[in-house]
């Protein structure tokens, strides 16, 4: 499922999470801020969609069935086409080990769930060079 933002030149953000609640929250927050959102239920779904959508940033849950977030991040980072795309890990655990393991597979940052609208948007701005299409005139 893809949601189109009101701006045609809006950055695309991919959100990979097996929780429909987390996907929906992220979609609402990001769409309201003027981003296009691509949703994926797990790593396999994300890898199938990433080529078609070329997101500027990827949020990736760690604990997912079939292909976990670490494996998904590593595969994205090994791709010649997407190795420069920032991948931010999402997790309900805020442990040092999880952060270190995320960094080892190429994750740019780590966001703890449940996230707030402000923390999500701050992470997007930080890792996309502030290229928000926010409705500030």
UniProtKB/TrEMBL annotation:
Any single GO BP term: phosphorelay signal transduction system
Alphabetical list of SUPFAM superfamilies matching this protein: CheY-like
4-aspartylphosphate found at: 61
Domain Response regulatory as annotated: residue spans: 12-128
Domain of life: Bacteria
Record SMART domains: REC
Pfam family, one: Response_reg
Record key words, sorted: Phosphoprotein, Two-component regulatory system
PROSITE patterns given in the database record: RESPONSE_REGULATORY
UniProt protein name: Response regulator
